[in-house]
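Comment thread on ticket #2218

A.B. wrote:
> Attaching the input chain for the structure job we discussed in standup.
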Amino acid sequence: MQPQLTTRAIVVGMLIGAVMCLSNIYVFFKTGWSMGVTLTACILAWATFKGLVAAKVTNKPLGVLENNALTTVASGAGFMTGGGNMAAFGALLMVTSDRPPSIPIIAWFAAIAALGVFAAIPIKRQLIDEEQLPFPTGTATAETLKSLHGADAGGDAEGGKKAKALAWAAGAGALVAFLRDAKAGWMPFNIPGAVELPFTLAGRALKDWTLSLKTEVVLIAAGALMSFRTGWSLLLGGGLTYVVLAPALLEQGAITGTGYKAIVAWTLWPGAAILVGSGLTSFALDYKSVGRSFSGLTAMFGRKQADAPPVDPEECPPWWFPVGFAVLGPVVIFLMGWLFHIPWWAGVVAVPLAVLMGFVAARVTGETDVTPTKALGPVTQLLFGVMTPGNLSGNIMSANVTGGIGLHAADLLTTLKTGKLLGASTRQQAKAQLFGVVAGAAVVVPAFNILIPDPSALGGDAWPAPSCLVWAGVSKAFANGIGALPDSARTAVWIGLLLGVALALLEKFAPKTVKPYVPSPSGVGIAMVIPGSNAIAMFLGAAIAEFLRKKRPQMAERLVIPVSSGLIAGESLMGILVALLVVAGVLSK
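C.D. wrote:
> Ran it. Output below, let me know if you need it in another format.
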């Protein structure tokens, strides 16, 4: 068999994963989304080793299975921002003045992610080997790897074009970020952060209502990676929020002024309600998938040992799952009590609940390519709101357990689907993911501290952190009761819930000809908790990508993902570098 989890695959995978983690944390606090890792990582790995071979640093090209293992490492690290990790951490800092020490938080994220890896081991046999669920991103990554490594005659040429597009875009994104964010006396000029629109609304400049054209290419690139339906839904939600709702709220005295923080303090509630209502409704409507999850659990754990097939030496031994949980479960429960004051008995409830939720999340991901953290997080927050009322930090971080385990189980299963199609070793990929989550946990907390040294910036125009706002808001509602809200906000919550339910029902039952015109509840809900300028920029990105898909489909297939990923990586990494230079005193704020 070809080499897979080599030393160089681990090292380069951890480095690429760290870069993707840095990029994702920047994007996440700007947009509320975590971008995909696997497709970008496999292209970066292929291009990196092409360059190393050309420079005669190594004479051994990267093999397809070795790239798959490397991509698995990178995915484990790059997705450390997802699954509620950064949403929960940011929300925690919003609702409490206590900032947990970095080392225990790193251990917290690593333990949760590793539990997700071990949870995926028995799930893989059920969902991938027996039921053969599609896991669309995993399948797409397998096809990309085959193309890059010459599975067809033009594979190398096509891979080279994608790698060059990514590199040029990264350079462009980095240049824009530097010219905009770096402040130094020797610089002849700076690009403005936003271009104001020469119009007024309700007697005020549009910028007062957060409406402008931002020069953050990361927003345009993030929009290009979304569906066009999500993109125009963001524009619709942003228009309703900042053009229609905000001026009316100011006139009625429901908000005290214009500007992002003043407006979003009210619109957060209906926005979060839309996300929760649609997420829970979609989850409930997918009752067949949920039912299959429970029947799959029964089949998975109810199988007699005598009936079980012999263990393939390339598969993970069955004992890895119980031993992994026996070792890491107590660690998570201890950290829950020590860091977040969650009673030990509530921690004992949280861990097995998270495994159950992780299995459900993995199945939904396998069938739809969407991990339902927007639904599973609030379910956990509701349960812990009942069990530990008034404990805001515990309410948030207990949901982090559910989201983190579910996300990392689903992430590993996605890469295991890729490995299945390529003939890779499951055992090697599970080890690869563990290397990745350790690297990601070690990077994500220091990166957050460097990028956002003052957590009070969260929820502001520079760092909207929409997912953090939603998690914090849901936690406050469940921990303190919705009755603590002003009357107008309570009414908005109920309207938002009904709207979220209605949009989810339309998504499910509307005729195929009508569905493309049904607003995305995720797009509308998120638009109510980000600046209007962000919604405009992401819509522009989605529109450009959709135009290319319609008019130039081959160009779109070749360029949209690499160029968007390159712009995101370039701007985000330069943003982090500028922050480091400011800390070092080389640049001014």
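A.B. wrote:
> Thanks. Noting for the ticket: Residues 455 and 482 are 25 Å apart (CA to CA).
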